[in-house]
Amino acid sequence: MTTTSTDAFDLQRIQRIRKWTIGLSLAVVVLVAMFSASWWGDGSTHEAVEAIGLGAIVLSIVGRAWCSLYIGGRKKAQVVCTGPYSISRNPLYVFSYAGAFGIGAQTGSMTIAAIFVLIAVVVFHFTIEREEAWLSAEFGEAYRDYLARTPRCGPDFSKWRDEDELSIRPRFFVTTIRDGLVFLLAIPIFEGVDMAQAAGWLPVLLHLP
């Protein structure tokens, strides 16, 4: 096995660990949310936080799909540096942060929403570092030039550049949409938690802003 193939295998392993870590972390936060409630109860502020969160989820789904049009199937084959990848090296993760906020905001608590984002930022930080090391080794000077001119998260809109045409790979686009739609499950899950708390089936042990 060559160094490159070993690195690629390690990259896939890191990505699997990332998914499991996020899943387990979010499960713990959901467990906390089951026994907590927002300070402002079920009033207009609670609903406003949920509405903002829904907007963030929609932004995340659309943004991730947009990114997939550029990166789908190309990440290990070339340095993608146009469209959203011209203003941020990791726009897919940036939109995922929006999704994490939106999921947490469905509890009506900005605190839980912030915790969701923090978990995503910490986990993705290590994933991004490993990916950047692999891409630097794989693409050399071309990727190092990209590192120098493009912010890790950004975005820096002054650096926007695009292509006249894109070769679209529908499978990756559909997969990204499907994965993003999972974020919407937060709505019925946390509505169910609210109903269970209102019915007295779940005790409220903590109130969070």
Structure in words:
With 209 residues, the chain is mostly helical. The chain has helices at 3-34, 44-71, 91-105, 110-139, 141-149, 170-181, 186-198; strands at 36-38, 206-208. It has a two-stranded parallel ribbon. The longest helix is centred in the first third of the chain and has 32 residues, at 3-34. The radius of gyration is 19 Å and the shape is elongated. The N and C termini lie far apart (53 Å). The model is unreliable at 1-6 (pLDDT under 50).
Q: What's the average pLDDT?
A: 85
Number of E strands: 2
Indicate the percent of residues in helices.
55-70%
Radius of gyration: 19 Å
- Count every helix, treating DSSP H or I runs of 4 or more residues as helices: 7
What strand order characterises the main sheet?
A: 1-2
Broad structural category: mainly alpha
What is the overall silhouette? elongated
- Strand/helix succession: HEHHHHHHE
Strand percentage:
under 5%
List the helices and strands and how they pair.
Elements: H1 3-34, E1 36-38, H2 44-71, H3 91-105, H4 110-139, H5 141-149, H6 170-181, H7 186-198, E2 206-208
Helix pairs in contact: 1-4, 2-3, 2-6, 3-4, 4-5
